[in-house]
Specification:
Strand order of the largest sheet: 7-4-6-5-9-8
CATH class of the largest domain: Alpha Beta
Number of strands: 26
Largest sheet: 6 strands, mixed
Strand content: 25-35%
Mean pLDDT: 95
Shape: elongated
Oligomer: single chain
Number of helices: 6
Length: 394
């Protein structure tokens, strides 16, 4: 059996996974999707110079405070005035409206005195021009968003500004979840059997997969029976782009997770990672379908899902297999680690991160308090409160 590989090496292997194919979708249905091609603007923005305030467009060099000017037109957002403004003239403009040709400044209405068809300005209106230049936001054919960008609400605003009706995005990964173990029963049914426990990992993994942009097409529970597991694995492989199997990854006589996929041509990218919790996590492939094995302990499973499933789903959609680590202060001491890199669960408080007292890989109630994973290197000494650590939102 191969030795566990380092965390960074496992993440690098996930980064080598080929994305799924792409498709065109309307921009209105692209939220949460990942761009498979650069998003390029159709034209520049603003298309022409526009006013940033309500006021009057004038020729600055030919205008003096107190001088009466003829108001020759009005420009409103969506109904621009197409003429030009000359010395001795002013055009009424509103925020977002086009500034007429020849104008070099907008004087805001607070400094204007209007008398019928004429206007003059009080002194002290300052140097600001209140004109947003044409193309000052972005130029025509500018790349607003690169391929690999996930379209968050903020990104959708920029994508809409490109004036494109459709975008090219990675296909939504189809994910099947297979929980293994004789002891597992659906929540709500476990109480009827003395030796049963509720199957909870699938719930958390399914929710995480959905939040990462995937479609969960199946969730199944199967006892530790190699024949039944092998048959069920074949069905799930045929329907999914990724099968996530939980449990059965140790070396016991009834740990059949890898064996059930071996019959379908499983090739392994890695089979153990030198981390705590989650050492038994593994990644493989059967034909065109990827298989990710997570530990059977709930905390271990959710930690490894955050560390490996989330970047794997990002990669399948054309994104990068990476994490956004933050440097944060400790509000309480962090215990020393052993020979494995450790991801300690912690909660955020006003003065920093507090590691949870219960770091048991099988515990479930502490998950309700764990907002962050603190990355601790192997053989890291005890860190006192006030020290800074690298942490990942959990």
């Amino acid at each position: 059996m191969a030795a566990p590989i380092p965390f960074d090496a496992a993440l690098a292997l996930i980064g080598e996974v080929e994305p799924l194919d792409s498709e065109r979708v309307p921009l209105a249905r692209a939220a949460g999707r990942t761009l498979a091609a650069n998003l390029v603007s159709r034209g520049q923005a603003p298309r022409s110079a526009v006013s940033t305030m309500d006021g009057y467009a004038i020729v600055d060099a030919a205008t003096a405070p107190g001088e009466w000017l003829d108001v020759t037109g009005e420009s409103r957002a969506g109904a621009w005035w197409r003429g030009a403004v000359a010395p001795g003239q002013a055009v009424r403009v509103f925020t977002g409206a086009g500034v007429p040709a020849g104008a070099t400044r907008v004087i805001i209405q607070e400094h204007a005195e209007r008398n019928g068809g004429r206007v003059r300005f009080t002194p002290g209106y300052g140097p600001a021009t209140y004109i947003r230049a044409a193309g000052s936001d972005f130029a025509a054919e500018a790349m607003l968003l690169p391929a690999g960008t996930r379209l968050t609400p903020r990104m959708l605003v920029a994508a809409g500004a490109a004036d494109r009706a459709e975008v090219t995005v990675g296909r939504v990964p189809r994910v099947a979840i297979l929980a293994t173990g004789d002891e597992l029963a659906p929540p709500g049914e476990a109480h009827a059997r003395q030796d049963a426990i509720p199957e909870t990992i699938g719930l958390g993994v399914a929710a995480l997969a959905k939040s990462a942009g995937a479609e969960v097409i199946a969730r199944a529970i199967c006892p530790d029976d190699l024949g039944r597991l092998t048959a069920l694995a074949g069905d799930l492989l045929a329907a999914a782009d990724l099968v996530v199997v939980t449990g059965g990854a140790s070396v016991g006589e009834r740990d059949f997770a890898k064996a059930s996929f071996a019959a379908h041509g499983l090739t392994l990218a890695f089979e153990k990672v030198a981390i705590k919790p989650g050492k038994p996590v593994w990644l493989g492939r059967c034909g065109e379908c990827h298989v990710l094995g997570l530990p059977g302990n709930p905390t271990s499973a959710m930690v490894t899902a955050a560390l490996f499933l989330r970047p794997l789903l990002a990669r399948l959609q054309g994104g990068k297999a990476e994490h956004r680590w933050r440097t944060m202060p400790l509000a309480a001491p962090l215990p020393a680690t052993d020979e494995r890199e450790t991801f300690a669960r912690a909660r955020w408080e006003d003065d920093g991160l507090t590691p949870l007292g219960n770091q048991d890989s099988g515990a479930q109630s502490p998950l309700t308090q764990a907002d962050w994973l603190i990355r601790c290197l192997a053989h890291q000494p005890l860190l006192a409160a006030g020290a800074t650590v690298r942490a990942l939102a959990f």
